[in-house]
Amino acid sequence: MYIPDSKSTQPGRWKWLAEILFWVLAVAIALLVMRPIHDYYGDNFHYYESNYAFIVLFITYTRYLFLLRLTPFSHNLWVKFILVFASIPLMLWLVDDTYDFRRMLDEVGLEPMVKSAHLDTRLSLARYAKYEYLFFSTSAIITIILVPFRMIVSIWRVRNQKNRV
Questions:
Q1: Contacts (Cβ under 8 Å, ≥6 apart) of 111
Q2: Model confidence over 27-69: pLDDT tens digits?
Q3: For every residue of the chain, which 3-state class applies, written as one string?
Q4: Distance between terminal CA atoms of the chain?
Q5: Cα 75 from Cα 154, distance rounded (Å)
Q6: pLDDT band at 100 (very low <50, low <70, confident <90, very high)
Q7: What are the φ and ψ backbone dihedral angles of 114, each rounded to 5 degrees?
C-alpha cells in the first residue's frame, strides 16, 4: 500500500494552482479580446455568452490537448470520461450558435447595429467582430472534436502504461 509523504503531495498543489491560474488567464484573454466589441456595440451584440464560451473553451481545451500531463486530473479516469461525453452536447451547442451567427451575418450584418460611428469605424469593427467570432468558434469546435480522442488515448495510456498520460 502506497502512502504519499508530504514531498509527493506538493506537485499536486502546484497543479491545482496552475489550473486555476490558467482558467483566470483564459477569462482575462476573453475579456481583452471582447473589449472592443463591448465598447462599440454595447447591448446590441447578442452573442456575448457564446463568444466568451468559444474563447475560454478554445484556450482551455487546447491546453488539455497538449499539456494534459500538467493538469491535476491527468490520472483521473472519471474526469476524462466526463470530458469525452460532455464534448458531444457542447459541440452541438457551439455549432448551433455558429450557425445562428452566420445566419445573422447573411440576413442583417453587424454594421446596422450601431449607426452613430463613422463609416470606416463601423466597417472595421464589424470586420473585427465577425472574424474574431468565426475564428474562436471554429477553433473551439475543432478542439472539442479532438479532445475526446485525446482523452481516450490518455485513458488507455494510464491503464496500460502506468507512468504515461
A1: 122, 123, 126
A2: 999 999 999 988 888 888 888 999 999 999 999 999 999 999 8
A3: CCCCCHHHHHHHHHHHHHHHHHHHHHHHHHHHHHHHHHHHHHHHCCCHHHHHHHHHHHHHHHHHHHCHHHCCCCCCHHHHHHHHHHHHHHHHHHHHHHHHHHHHHHHCCCHHHCCCCCHHHHHHHHHHHHHHHHHHHHHHHHHHHHHHHHHHHHHHHHHHCCCCC
A4: 22
A5: 8
A6: very high
A7: -135, 125
Contact 97, 49 (CB under 8 A): no
What cell numbers appear for 57 in the block? 473553451
Q: pTM of the full predicted structure?
A: 0.85
Measured CA to CA in angstroms, residue 85 lies from 14, 36, 63, 88 at distances of 27, 35, 18, 6
